Fold each of these.
Amino acid sequence: MTGPMLSVSELTAGYGRITVLDKISIEAGRFGNVGLFGPNGHGKTTLLRAVSGLLKPRQGRIVFDGEDITEATSRAIVKKGLIHVPQGNTLFPDLSIADCMALGAYSPRARPLEDENREKVLALFPKLRERWRQRVATLSGGERQMVSIGTALMSHPKLLILDEPTLGLAPKIKDELCRSVLEISKSGVPLIVVEQDVEFLLELSQHLYFLNHGQVETEIKPGESLGHSEIMAMYFGH
């Protein structure tokens, strides 16, 4: 790939009279995985919502896989292969795991690969096979997150966005999920990940953006190194 799969240019967005993102620019999919980090409430989730069509930008441009998607609906963006897993296990609680997986494969580009992708998801998350017919509401938080990511993978993403995938999970389940996300990356799916676990983000990402007050305060490009202590200094000041 000569250019980025995703390019966000001079994007401004917010809610009501509040501006959250102020002319922010990032790119993803050219140099490997992208990690987004920074204090809570400073624009990370808002950026992801704008990119995936859940929030209409006030100005700026979003290009995905060579197409301008700034004004596209979230449904159209999903069909193009840009898949967003939001915070908080927001899947349909009354559906079974099997039903969620089938929904994930609804788009024309994903449907022919449904069987193949289902086996990949179940190899990645063996617990889901054991609970295949259970309702999502009966699962633990970690299992629901596995269903969320698994459903996204059923959509056969060209680019997968994960917003704090380990938020609120017990340490053992969190470690298990982190290993699974690394496996997804190794399978060739490029990722954009928002995560507060600095060590995991450094292990996963080749390209990092530190967001502060709705802007990119620091960009760490591939080949540049940044230690845990330097990141902590960004969060809490020098």
Note: The chain has a mean pLDDT of 89.
Amino acid sequence: MGVVIESEIWEPNKALYIFLFISCVFSIFCLPTKSIANLFDHSPPTSFLRFQRKLLLLYVLSSVMEGLWAVFGEYELAYYGLSREQMLTTLCVGYAASLLIGSFLGMLSDLIGHKKMCLLFYTLHLLVSVLKIVMGTPSIWFATICLSLASLIFSFSFETWMVVEHDKLGQRQDSLNDMFWLMTFSESASFIGSQVLANYLIDGNLDKNIKSMWNEAAVLAVIAIIFVTRSWKEGPQKIAPKDYCISLHKHAISDKRIWLVSWAQGCVHFSVAAFWILWAPTIVADGREVSLGLIYPCLLGSKMLGSTVFPWFFHGPLVLRIEEHLVYAFIIMGVTLSVVAYDYQEIGVLVTLFCLFHTCIGVVLPSLARLRTMYVPNDIRGGIMSLSLMPANAAVLFFLVLRGYCHFIGNSTITAFAALGLFSAAGCMYLLRKWGKQLHQSKHNL
């Protein structure tokens, strides 16, 4: 008589969701900041406050669109019948497009206007959605290129647009700090919402209801395009292409602080990309059965919690220089990835490490945005941001080829390189803090 061994599917404890939710609410409502209260004030708002509210609404809408493809992309490729090798090829095509084309979209955004670049983001999503509705199975490569470029635009264009408008209206820097963490918070919350929306639209029947997700994405893109074109007017860009190139070259070459901030941003981009490619294979290693769809909200909830910690460094008792708390955050992120790379762990320990990693990500992203405001001129901000991602995209593409086609390295090696990059980012922040103190002392002596 044979023995039947029942395998148990691992799921996170429901108390984790409650803990993350209560922690986020507690962190926000205990924060002694005036700007958050202004967002929900019912008195007649100022012009910048109206812009803040509209941009946050638009950013939430854009995040839901991005999240629909991020959450459901792999299942959609499997629905089309793609093998693992073909999925790897689509990843390589996407990162190659981001490297060869996307690296220069930031410069184009600075020249033509950030509003137009955001409209391009929605147009790319709308184009892919319409093609899928009409054709059913459009070119996977074409869709991958369009969505990869859209994701790259999403990573810099909305932030740059917000900062430029903030500068035009002459607002205080405190409002920028709050907008940075609110954008990180709302992005993660929208990604969770997009997972709920995708599950609701599919309703367990992929073959019958897959077009409903494309319809929803197309509707959201049309709404966003109408909202942007009717709600905002953007004046013509005053800088000529020749002058822009001179300014970009001057600051990118001569200002070492921009180099340090850009390198740190690239290291974060590489580590996050490597994480989302490898986290599922790492957890299900050795045939372990795990409910990945229930872990996904835990990671994003941790990122939301980390974003609510950021304003405490400005308004609460944890008053630290941005560079100082970034050093600690990068070291913690590097240590967590090092443990994952070199030590076999139980699923519960892995999920805990992944949540800690994303909590630090929630702190790091608005902090780096604040540093860019301090050191990068607004007229070249988009170009610097997109160029800073070029080494990261090249590294991801390089490791994908070595891992997928050459079988030269393992997943743990890629994770280890991501950890080394984060440690180097901590070194960059240490140097930036050291130079900042020296500059302050020299000015004080004068």
Note: The radius of gyration is 22 Å.
Amino acid sequence: MGKHRLPEPVLRRHVRTSGSMSKLSRALGIALTPASVGPLERRPYPPGQHGRSRRKESDYRLRLLEKQRLRAQYAVSEAQLRRTLATASRSGAKTGEVLVEELERRLDAVVLRSGIARTVQQARQFVSHGHVQVNGRTVDRPSYRVEVLDVVRVAPASRSLAPFVVAAAGGNAPEHVPPHLEVVLPALTVGVVARPRRAELPVVCDEQLVVEHYSR
């Protein structure tokens, strides 16, 4: 069993350490932060002495890679992803699509997509430090699930802090804001106007392979 497994402790360590996000981006083949775009373009292969070598990937490794990509893009733990998958599997709809849509309802994901935060790690920090409110109430859980008609905003007392001044000026503005969000960056406010839809989300992942990974 052990000979077929990828070193998932490496994924956990990289997700928690912002300085290694470029290495993780290269390992997964996707840019996880704006700062990792350049290194990935210059060296579009995994780090390490064998990074350039090409080898045939097993079905297991391909499915595991997709799961790692999804985890990294939302910076969620293995347990969090499993719980979200369990919720998605009970929905009656396509499990993979619902899985991504449920992850997108996380408060830290909303803060990221709106342009208030530059990376998902920064979004998690903003929420956990009490800088974000939902419907006027401070919420410090990045995993909090937003609902349609919720209003997410930066707490008034936090708006003068440098990261939020940059955000309000459009410094983190994404190229594309998913249509389920209505963003007013100068006011550091986000309205949730619909449920997220997988086809409209900028997530690089074959979610069906993630479902198959857990179904094996």
Note: The longest helix spans residues 59-74.
Amino acid sequence: MQDFSIFISSLTSGYTPVIGGDYEQKDFAYIDLSGNNTDLLKLEVASSEAFSVFIDEFLRNRNKKAAYGGYNELRTLYNRSELFNNVEANRNIHIGLDIWVPAYSEILSPLNGKVHSFRDNQNFGDYGPTIILEHIEDSRKFYTLYGHLSRKSLEEIEIGAPVKEGEKIAELGDFEENGDYAPHLHFQVMENIHDKKGDYPGVVKKEDLDNYLKNCPDPNLLLKI
């Protein structure tokens, strides 16, 4: 069987929107949020408001409208949350793609599919409202996850409901409902979801990284931002 990352890359031929509105490929800027970014040392990362200002200034200085990045990125910013920063978990490597745009931006499905599951993951530092879609392309099943949504996004959604490519499926939440983050979408691709519903790890520990990277390839292979 074809390698999953190659398969995912083959599904789209160019930039594929997951954020609604008039965003074009040229409107995005890559941002490094790893421990190598010295600018983060000056920031009070425990404050979602301060982080929003940091993102806004980053985009304004580059004359861009959206920031993206974070796949396979070692981040120290998770130290603020006991969900990740504890002896048992010790998770700090991000395996999704983050896209930083304003709260209540429309979220689109990049492919045809159906609603697999949804859940409000309410822990501090968690996804907040989350939707998982199931896709079948060339007889191969896989999943996409959308985290940090608004609670309104979960009000009328139904498991099994069909979704078309480019269709609005949700909107981003603000920090009061999205796990206490500056507004952004966590987008992740997964070949196997096992028994998970409305949730799947997006931050993992080093010991588990290789297995997760095989199951969760770089989402930008699909979006091509």
Note: Confidence is low (pLDDT under 50) at residues 79-87.
